Structures are given as C-alpha cells and as structure tokens.
From TrEMBL:
Keywords: Methyltransferase, Transferase. The keyword tRNA processing does not apply. Signal peptide: none annotated. This is Malonyl-CoA O-methyltransferase. The lineage of its organism: Bacteria, Pseudomonadati, Fibrobacterota, Fibrobacteria, Fibrobacterales. InterPro entries: Malonyl-ACP_OMT, SAM-dependent_MTases_sf.
Length: 228
C-alpha cells in the first residue's frame, strides 16, 4: 500500500472510516482514558481523530511508514512496525485498517504484548477474508487475508479478548472505472505484478461484475487486554 500516493484517501476511504468508527465504539465501552497511547499505521489520521475526541491521554505517539500531517503534531516513529522498537510501558496500543498487511501477526502480537504496561490494552480493526472478493474471483489474486478465527486464535496466545465484532461494508460504483479509481485513491492494490490490466481483460473484468460494480470489505474489530 502506497499511502503517500493516495492524495485523496480520506474522500474515498468509506470502508476504512466505518471500521474506525466500529473500533472507537468498542474501545470506548472499555476505557475513556489512557496515559500513554501508541497508534500503529496512523495514515491520514482517520482513527487518530477518534482518539483525540473520545479518549483522554498524557502521551500519544503515532507510527506510519511515511510522515503524514497528524505526525507533525505529535511524537512519531516512521518505519515498519515489524522492525521498529516500540516504546515500553504503554497503556494502550491501537491500529485501524493496517494489520491485514502484516505477514507474521504472531510475532507482532508478542512485540505489542512486550510493549504494554501491566493490564495494558490492545485494540484494532483489520480486514479479513472475503475482502474484495468481487475482484479476486476474476484475478485469482489478493492479500492472504486471515479469518476472524485465525486472528483470535493468535491473539489468545498473548491477550484476553474483552470484546470483538465482525462487520462488512459494501461499496457501490457506477462503472468499473469508478471502482478501480476508488482502489487507486485509497492506495489499495489487490493485484500482484503478474496481472496487468489490458483493453481485452478490462472488458472481461467488466463483464464479471454482471452490471453490479460492488466492492465488499469485511473486517474484524477486537479489544483485548494484556494478561495479568
């Protein structure tokens, strides 16, 4: 995902905003304050805005692969969360619409566990299997999205799950051009280098939608707590 190229991300990030709202709803059922908060993959700040409005804190550190506008106002760590050294003794670690890009979730969960203070919390929303299935059924390519059960099974090695929710968002477009533009504007690329869109397969892809140009995003929201 190349967010630095997705200049109109917020305008097109409907599914990501819905996932962030669901994450905020579940999280604020559990807490309304945390001294030290760390956000993984803050991007344009869609979930950061929920933090600022709904959770009191003393310190907020933002992470992303590239510097973004929210990171100019708060302490930040630029780089891959899998290789960065996350600060210790955090009270809350959050992430929205990012963790589906992580190959080794178990290692990251362990890293997050190690960075949390006693009884610290971890809350996230991530896209799961079935996301963009309308495109994948034609290209036979896509991210190796995990199932909610697979994710929760890994989590239980490190955390107590306090609450969880599965949900989806289906976007409707007038035509294939608009659908593909939405993917481009949000920096989402469900294709690898072996698939190239040509005039010929564009028509085939268009036909595969059978007049209904929809994209479905499925996601899991979890709020959990470090084991005592």
């Amino acid at each position: 995902m190349r967010f630095e190229r997705a200049k109109n991300y917020d305008e097109f990030a409907t599914a990501q905003k819905k996932a962030a709202a669901d994450l905020s709803e579940l999280l604020t059922k559990q807490i309304h304050a945390a001294d030290k908060i760390y956000e993984i993959g803050c991007g344009s700040g869609i979930f950061t805005q929920h933090i600022l409005k709904e959770i009191s804190f003393k310190e907020l550190t933002l992470n992303d692969l590239y510097k973004s506008l929210p990171m100019e106002k708060y302490p930040s760590q630029i780089g891959d969360i899998c290789t960065l050294e996350i600060p210790k003794n955090l009270n809350l670690i959050v992430s929205s619409s990012v963790l589906q890009w992580i190959d080794d979730l178990n290692s990251l969960f362990q890293k997050i566990d190690d960075s949390l203070f006693e009884k610290g919390m971890f809350a996230f929303a991530m896209f799961t299997n079935g996301t963009l299935f309308e495109l994948e059924r034609f290209t036979h390519q896509g991210l190796a999205y995990k199932t909610p059960d697979e994710i929760c099974s890994l989590l239980k090695n490190h955390f107590e799950i306090l609450d969880s929710k599965e949900n989806f968002c289906t976007l409707q477009f007038e035509n294939l051009f608009a659908l593909l533009d939405s993917l481009k504007q949000t920096g989402v690329n469900n294709l690898d280098g072996n698939f190239h869109l040509t005039k010929s397969n564009f028509k085939e892809l268009e036909k595969s939608f059978d007049g209904k140009f929809n994209l479905t995003y499925r996601y899991l929201v979890v709020v959990c707590k470090k084991f005592n």
